[in-house]
Amino acid sequence: GQSLEQPSEVTAVEGAIVQINCTYQTSGFYGLSWYQQHDGGAPTFLSYNALDGLEETGRFSSFLSRSDSYGYLLLQELQMKDSASYFCAVIDGKSTFGDGTTLTVKP
Amino acid sequence: NAGVMQNPRHLVRRRGQEARLRCSPMKGHSHVYWYRQLPEEGLKFMVYLQKENIIDESGMPKERFSAEFPKEGPSILRIQQVVRGDSAAYFCASSGQGVFGTEAFFGQGTRLTVV
């Protein structure tokens, strides 16, 4: 089966940088995705890593190390609107999600 | 190009009634995934369907829950004889390919409340 671990809560201030880590155990693996969810709304796709290394998309970057079964989401220049839940997900044909990290951005 | 459409957005059912949740995938998408989310928790996979076929139902409870994705019309998640523990948000996602990857988009969800 699959299991993912990520911190339950992270707090940071506006303008700061925050890193949300994700470790996983899986029997099948295509890649690691990250999703953002505001207040129980529709999860929205942020990034996908199929290969080792860093993927950068604007203020957000995502990293994957397949040998370490580890990835992270890096958010730079934090804004208040970044306050949300962030989920890592192992892609294995369907998608298995972690329990999410609640990010609170303070002024 | 409309996104993934789920209806109803909110559904209230009494214990013992049936709940039917609908999901219309994005145009051109033939793969649908259903997830359940309890408050303060992640999305738990329930079932993966392709047109007229159930591909993976490993996350579906063995009783009372069923899903279909007919050749025409939306995908339906059906919960019979609902109980309070079924209260949750149910999300569907669709993709154009069989790997969830970067092409899966979520609907706004149906919030089921069992009273």
Structure, explained:
The complex is a heterodimer of chains A (107) and B (115). Helix content of chain A is 0%, strand content 58%. Chain A is built from no helices and eleven strands. Chain A has strands spanning 3-5, 9-13, 18-25, 31-37, 44-49, 53-57, 60-65, 70-75, 84-91, 96-97, 101-106. In chain A, strands 2, 4, 5, 9, 10 and 11 form a six-stranded mixed beta sheet that branches. Chain A has a five-stranded antiparallel beta sheet with strand order 1-3-8-7-6, with no helix packed on it. The N and C termini of chain A lie far apart (41 Å). Chain B has 115 residues and is mainly β. Helices cover 0% and strands 49% of the residues of chain B. Chain B contains no helices and eleven strands. In chain B, strands 2, 4, 5, 6, 9, 10 and 11 form a seven-stranded mixed beta sheet that branches. A four-stranded antiparallel beta sheet of chain B has the order 1-3-8-7, with no helix packed on it. The termini of chain B are far apart. In chain B, 35% of the residues are buried. The chains are: A mainly beta (107), B mainly beta (115). Chain A binds chain B through residues 30-31, 33, 35, 40-45, 48, 50, 87, 89, 91, 93-100, and chain B through 4, 33, 35, 37, 39, 41-45, 48, 56, 89, 91, 93, 98-102, 104-109, 111.
- Strand percentage of chain A: over 45%
Q: What overall geometry of chain A do the principal axes of the alpha carbons give?
A: globular
- Which structural class best describes the helix and strand composition of chain B? mainly beta
Average pLDDT of chain B, rounded to a whole number, is 91
Number of strand elements of chain A: 11
- Tell me roughly what share of residues is in helical segments of chain B: under 10%
The description of the largest β-sheet of chain B is: 7 strands, mixed
Query: Span from first to last CA of chain A?
Result: 41 Å
Q: Largest interface, counted with CB-CB under 8 A?
A: A-B, 23 and 27 residues
Oligomeric category: heterodimer
Spans of chain B of 5+ residues with little confidence (pLDDT < 50)? none
User: Using only CA atoms, what is the Rg of chain B?
Assistant: 13 Å
How can the largest sheet of chain A be summarized?
A: 6 strands, mixed
Annotation, overall tally of beta strands of chain B: 11
Helix content of chain A: under 10%
